[in-house]
Amino acid sequence: MFSLEGKKALVTGATGGLGGEIARALHAQGASVALSGTRAEVLQKLADELGERTAVVPCNLSDAEAVDNLPKAASDALGGLDILISNAGVTRDQLLMRMKDEDWETVIKVNLEAHFRLCRASMRGMMKNRWGRIIGITSVVGVTGNPGQANYAASKAGMIGFSKALAQEIASRGVTVNCVAPGFIASPMTDALNEEQKSAILTKIPAGDLGTGKDIAAACVYLASEEAGYVTGQTLHVNGGMAMI
Amino acid sequence: MSDVFDRVKKIVIEHLDVEEDKVTEKASFIDDLGADSLDNVELVMAFEEEFDIEIPDDAAEHIQTVGDAVKFISEKVG
After folding, report:
1. Which of A53, A154, A194, B63 has the fewest CB atoms within 10 Å around its CB?
2. At residue A138, does pLDDT exceed 70?
3. Closest chain A residue by Cα to residue B17
4. C-alpha dihedral over A226, A35, A76, A218, to 10 degrees?
5. How many domains does chain B have?
């Protein structure tokens, strides 16, 4: 089950811990993977590690035109595009009273607008093939909220609503649109938290530990698979029980 | 038969997977050729690409038959 043999996938944010794990998992299931991110040398390193069936397609997600062109670059490199995983994300945490316009705009642009642009540029090919998988990596805070993250929570909640609308538009074409919502996952983003913040978080996670990139990657493999073809417009929460929604 | 008609016909046959003889000027995309609203949008986008023109949304709404499409495109490309 869950073979991705012959499928072609684009993963954004593949320079990060989470994106790297997602790319590895898709690749291990047999998919060809186009790795995107801003740092080409980090992407190349991952591509070298994975070996065959990879392509490196660097992109700055705050550059609208570059984002519009990314799916085509991936498709040209792999010979098609069946699976899109929008994983790239940024945070600019700040209490709202102190939040600058730029903090808001950057987060919305990279986390939400880039997903819209990537979907719009990927969906036609998938619709023509009558097969496609679009997966947005959202966040538990998009559903629960989190103080200091109004911009981030808005972008991630936006991704969920966006996915539900798009799922309804293209379900008849065999293209599913879903989200995976990580809880607290060990990553450079959670490493930035101090010990006090970390232990406060752990008391709220019934599983008693942070999640790993592998936990999220497994959810992506499932949603990308043939077997998940009847699942669309959903958000799969992977959070050790910290929020049961 | 005009060149525009032939090119439109080719796109319609390809996209909607219909028999060639069904694609007449009078054929309605939705009523006769089995298109849904999403097909209509895809067809309009395919016409835009094929003829390198822009079809505004309000014009696209009035393109309901193959003939409508041919007429609109012919006027645009002169």
Report:
1. A194
2. yes
3. A128
4. 0
5. 1
